[in-house]
Amino acid sequence: MAAPQELYTAIRDEASSVLIGNEDVIERLTISLLTDGHVLLEGVPGVAKTTIANIFARALGLEFQRIQMTPDLLPADVTGTNVYRENIGEFQLQRGPIFGNVIVADEINRATPKTQSALLEAMQERQVTIEGETLELPEPFIVIATQNPIEMDGTFGLPEAQRDRFQFKLSVDIPSREDEAAVLDRFTSQPNLTSSSIEPVATSEDIQTAREAVSKVHIAPVVQSYLLDIVEATRENEYLEHGASPRAGITTLRAAQARAAIDGRDYVIPDDIKELAADALSHRLVLSTNAELSNVLPREIIEEILETVPAPSADDVLETVEV
């Protein structure tokens, strides 16, 4: 079980040579990488959302592709298209930026729903269809989308189906005064410091080995039942029109396996579920009209559910773990 823990530690330490703070974001990105997930980063301009994604890709030695999502962007601009080459007298496939390992869809909610939908097949099936031809995407493959929560003009809200494809929705907040002072000091003393300063600390083989280790992490029946209780509670909550989907439960459980592995454990504990639940479930919920009028936030609902749903004891979990 050392591989996932060592991989995360290496990524975190290398990222910290440029990035200050946001360790939770790097942890969630690592979890998603190890469990075939995708991440939606939300934050105001200037908080390093795109930089975080770039640093993450460079630390892994992966191919990084950035797509600036705009209203005039077409689906073919994302996936690619067949282009006629006059010099050879035939069409050739021009692959789009989706053919990379780490895809950053910057300001995803500025693209039209039609263009956003071009990402759906890629995110779920790890493939794209171009003019009837289905093409596999590289492995590993992760989409990191960003959006600005304060600008609504010229944006298109993500539909439920799109949101449900993201394993996590994370908030990248304004740093604390202490962290911001450290940022100013670092970039004053090292004015040429950029994400390109990051060195690769892992290979594709390392990632695959870590993924295999994560898949073997033990899930006690009582832990699985605990997660099901949480998911079911979202479907029965008075403030929700629609609760979490079965996909939400699957991806949360897999994320809990990865969190256990990078913590050096070969079994999931209830705290893994508790730690990840708000990030994994809140963006999938559909609020009722009453909740919107009452200004109830999805994360608040998840936090209240976590306080009311009883968690299994450590003894119940450990008695199913092979010593």
From TrEMBL:
It holds the Pfam family AAA_3. Residues 35-176 form the AAA+ ATPase domain. InterPro entries: AAA+_ATPase (IPR003593), ATPase_AAA-3 (IPR011703), CbbQ/NirQ/NorQ/GpvN (IPR050764), ChlI/MoxR_AAA_lid (IPR041628), P-loop_NTPase (IPR027417). GO terms for molecular function: ATP binding; ATP hydrolysis activity. It comes from the Archaea. Keywords: ATP-binding, Nucleotide-binding. SUPFAM superfamilies: P-loop containing nucleoside triphosphate hydrolases (SSF52540). This is AAA domain-containing protein. It comes from Haloferax marinum.
